[in-house]
Design a protein that fits this description.
Blueprint: E1 27-28, H1 33-37, H2 51-60, E2 64-68, H3 75-88, E3 93-97, H4 100-114, E4 119-122, E5 127-128, E6 134-138, H5 139-152, E7 160-163, H6 175-184, E8 191-195, H7 201-212, E9 216-220, E10 228-233, E11 238-241, H8 260-266, H9 283-292, E12 298-301, H10 305-311, H11 323-337, H12 349-355, E13 357-360, H13 366-377, E14 383-386, E15 400-403, E16 407-409, E17 414-416, H14 419-426, E18 438-442, H15 450-457, H16 472-481, H17 484-492, H18 495-503, H19 522-538, H20 550-555, H21 563-571, H22 580-591, H23 607-629, H24 639-649, H25 654-661, H26 665-683, H27 690-703
Parallel strand pairs: 1-11, 2-8, 2-9, 3-6, 3-7, 4-6, 7-8, 10-18, 12-14, 12-15, 13-14, 15-18
Antiparallel strand pairs: 4-5, 10-11, 16-17
Length: 712
């Protein structure tokens, strides 16, 4: 099915009923009566592992294991058992997660299980108890530890590795990190991979078995822990089964045939809609319908951050009347606010307290998102408005999830939801131990294809494809411990090569705008590696024989997005050696991925910042031109991010820094965190650049403070 590409319109909240847009009055089709009587909380029973969980624990005790099971089915329990066994034998475990927030959550969980003194965390932002027998961290940190182990000729200090959210292997931006870990990890270390969304698990397991010389066992569970029932929200306020239900005790799966009344609606030439295109529907009234039929709490998936923020303004009628619940919510919010003073001033705090409704998206402060996640998990909220990105990596399921679009914005264009995205979102519907049944509600609109939603209900997860690609950081680190010939052998082990060999249908060439082809076999990887190698040789980072020079050795420690630009800045003395705020600002300009305008209030542009910024920009021009001539992507430097981070490092109030940056709070936090990560790598160059390394350390202290960081 094809959904027309569209632009991001500015949504408006001034909805008024007009002809063709009916008043909403709660109603439910008779076909839902039996389903709705099943809503409730299941009886408490002692925990008993499911067969797939026991099978997975048995498999990882013998070798590698890939577990695919729906969200909320208990994959973490498998990891806990594997770690407990390793810990009990006096050995070490490494639990790698894709998100820092998820790593922090698992760190807290494991600290309670194994004792805080036995658990450490490594996320870049946090480094606590790094020699503990149980380590939780991000995949990038684990990959970097593998680089270091290969360089020093030592073994990774682990006897078990758990890769959570293993489907990130197919992520365009970060999948290469997962693939590198799988290739570099010594075969002696058992590898446990957990995922809810892998369609071609057999291919991945077969590939791993071939490169690690031992069987990778697949444990697959398809049954949801809480059954899902799809519902159609008619603009009149009446709820219908989305598909012709096949109702029997314990069976709420439905069928593929669209319910007749729903079919009649979508076949109309001009059906009623809840709101005109590009305007928000009356969320308060929608919430009222869901509340009447006991379908709360609910997660509304919206297309943009602005829609999420504007939606809560349409829920003012959702006032809490239960005094006990209102008191409990207020008390819990007060407890959470005490941990971060900025939350007390959050513009949406009043709405949260009075309506039990919040907006959760990447533009929000991490501390605010944590408040919402905590309240939702504890059952204190009625609704969360969120973008689809919240479906992965954040654990706050609801009884119901609501869709308004059957497409999503991928950063460049709107594309139809694929099975993996849909299953991740519906995976939040139904709380294990709290719900007998979960609901996925589709609301019709201009960008909602009900037939596609029905098709996705029974679609298997999408296949995961290789995203491996060569970059300068990878090239330097491979040459740090391997000869060019050995490097070619490693590239031959890639998942891409395995797929090519298996499919024998030519190249898998997924294009990315402005970037190199990804998903190609080892011959193309090797040619791309040689292209990087030749440039490194030309610039004196590597010898003709393939050995790193002195500059190449320290440059290999810059495991960042643009290592050569930063390395060249260090080489020719462009970076400030003693001014911490200034160094922080210049590094921020290397980090920022936007193309902002540079019309900035002069009070935030002191002469020393302007002089240094343009000195760096002019100094790098010859190098940047050479990179461009050799066909490499070159990072453009912009003044606005440098000015914003300079203001923050210089002690300006958060509100002023926001105004200078002209980005949302969450994005500003991300810019600061990424700047700190780059500074952390520069700090590691103490032997080659002692002054700059010391200044980088001080720079991090200037910017890593509330509200960027939280009290854990």
């Amino acid at each position: 099915m094809v959904i027309k590409k569209r632009r991001f319109p500015r949504s408006k909240t001034n909805f008024k009923n007009k002809p063709g847009f009916p008043d909403i009055k709660p109603g439910a089709d008779a076909g839902l009566k039996k389903i709705f009587t099943s809503i409730g909380v299941p009886d408490k029973t002692p925990f008993k592992p499911d067969p797939f969980q026991l099978d997975a624990v048995s498999a990882i005790n013998k070798g590698d294991c890939l577990v695919t099971a729906p969200t909320g089915s208990g994959k973490t329990w498998i990891a806990e058992q594997a770690i407990a066994r390793t810990f009990g034998n006096g050995k070490k475990s490494w639990y790698a997660a894709p998100l820092k927030a998820l790593s922090n959550s698992k760190y807290s969980e494991f600290s309670e299980i194994f004792g805080a003194e036995n658990v450490g965390i490594l996320t870049g932002d946090r480094k606590e108890n790094p020699d503990a027998p149980v380590i939780v961290g991000t995949t990038e940190i684990l990959r970097n530890q593998l680089y270091d182990a290969m360089y020093h000729g030592t073994e990774l200090a682990a006897d078990l590795v758990v890769l959570d959210e293993a489907h990130f292997l197919g992520d365009e931006e970060r999948g290469v990190v997962w693939e590198e870990i799988m290739i570099y990890l010594p075969a002696r270390i058992p590898l446990l991979m957990l995922s809810a969304t892998i369609g071609n698990a057999n291919q991945i397991a077969k590939w791993l078995s071939s490169i690690r010389s031992k069987e990778c066992v697949i444990i697959e569970e398809t049954k949801r822990p809480v059954p899902l029932f799809p519902v159609f929200f008619h603009p009149s306020g009446t709820l219908f089964p989305m598909v012709s239900p096949k109702i029997s005790p314990g069976d709420y799966k439905g069928g593929k045939k669209i319910y007749k009344k729903v079919e009649n609606y979508i076949n109309k030439k001009r059906p009623f809609l809840l709101a005109p295109p590009h305007k928000l529907p009356p969320f308060g009234k929608i919430l009222g319908v869901l509340k009447k039929y006991n379908l709360l709490p609910v997660i509304f998936f919206l297309k943009s951050r602005a829609d999420c923020d504007n939606a809560i303004e349409l829920c003012l009628e959702n006032v809490l009347h239960d005094s006990d619940r209102k008191t409990k919510l207020g008390k819990r919010i007060e407890e959470l606010v005490m941990q971060n003073s900025y939350i007390a001033r959050h513009r949406q705090l009043g709405r949260l307290e009075h309506t039990a409704v919040g907006a959760h998206h990447s533009g929000q402060l991490p501390s605010w998102k944590l408040v919402l996640e905590t309240l939702m998990t504890e059952g204190l909220l009625d609704a969360i408005f969120a973008t689809s990105t919240v479906a992965a990596g954040v654990n706050f399921p609801a009884r119901t999830v609501v869709f308004f679009n059957s497409d999503r914005f991928n950063g460049k264009e709107f594309l139809p939801l694929n099975p993996t995205e849909f299953h991740q979102m519906t995976g939040r519907a139904g709380r294990r131990g709290m719900d007998n049944i979960g609901f996925a509600v589709a609301v019709p609109g201009k960008f909602m294809d009900i037939r596609l939603i029905v098709k996705l209900l029974d679609s298997p997860p999408s296949d995961v494809e290789s995203q491996i690609r060569i970059n300068f950081s990878m090239a330097l680190n491979l040459l740090l411990s391997h000869s060019p010939g050995q490097t070619e052998e490693l590239l031959e082990k890639s998942f891409a090569t395995n797929l090519i060999t298996e499919k024998r249908t030519g190249l898998i060439t997924q294009k990315r705008t402005g970037k190199h082809l990804i998903g190609y076999d080892h011959k193309f990887l090797w040619q791309d590696f040689l292209r990087h190698f030749n440039f490194l040789e030309e610039k004196g980072y590597v010898t003709k024989e393939g050995e790193l020079t002195g500059d190449g050795i320290w440059a290999s420690k810059l495991r960042i997005d643009h290592p050569l630009m930063v390395a060249e800045s260090l080489r020719i003395g462009l970076l400030p050696k003693t001014n911490s705020a200034l160094l922080t600002a210049i590094i921020a300009s290397f980090v920022d991925e936007r193309e902002p305008d540079d019309k900035i209030d002069k009070k935030f542009l002191p002469k020393e910042l302007l002089d240094r910024f343009y000195k760096v920009k002019r100094g790098l021009e010859p190098f940047a031109k050479l990179m461009t001539n050799r066909g490499f992507e070159v990072k453009s430097l912009f003044l606005r991010p440098a000015a914003a981070i300079y203001a923050w490092a210089s002690g300006h109030p958060w509100e002023d820094v926001l105004a200078v940056s002209e980005i949302e709070e969450g994005n500003l936090v991300m810019l600061i965190l990424r700047t700190a990560d780059n500074l952390r790598h520069i700090r590691a160059l103490a032997k080659a650049f002692p002054e700059v390394a010391e200044t980088a350390s001080k720079s991090m202290e200037l910017i890593m403070r509330v509200p960027v960081v939280m009290d854990y």
